[in-house]
User: Fold this.
Amino acid sequence: MRLNRNAFAALLVIGVPALLLGAPAQAASKVCKLAISGNDAIQYDKKQLTITADCTQVELTLTHTGKLPAQSMGHDWVLVKAEDLSAVASDGLTAGIANNYVKPNDARVIAHTKVVGGGESTSVTFATSALQKGQAYKYLCTFPGHNAIMNGDFIIQ
Assistant:
């Protein structure tokens, strides 16, 4: 009985503080929510979106505030490194509406929404683990002819 009492005492003295103090803290998940809209005049309402470096995920909502359908004036939101913008937009042309004007499995695309028409909204949630502070990121609409006007800077502070 004495051995059991000593073992229990050792567990209390060593084990409990180890559990309370020695365990590494779990990083808290922080979802940063962003919203952007596009209209029938081929414009986003924001030229820049910013998140803080402590965001672990981003939830972006795109709203098409116009009235025209997706087939004639659709908008999407695609996040890429700045240097990949033109190439991703070009490849999107051949991908077509069935692929939301995004080349399937394109490793240059960090995140993207589907194409929406007037009065519709869509969202995408993505992890920030692949993003690097200091790297230049851009977002764009890959609907044919839109990327020259519908693009902006995605900044990590």
Summary: Helices lie at 2-22, 70-73, 85-95. Residues 7-25 have pLDDT under 50 and may be disordered. Residues 31-156 form a domain with the Immunoglobulin-like fold (CATH 2.60.40.420). DSSP finds three helices and eight strands in the chain.
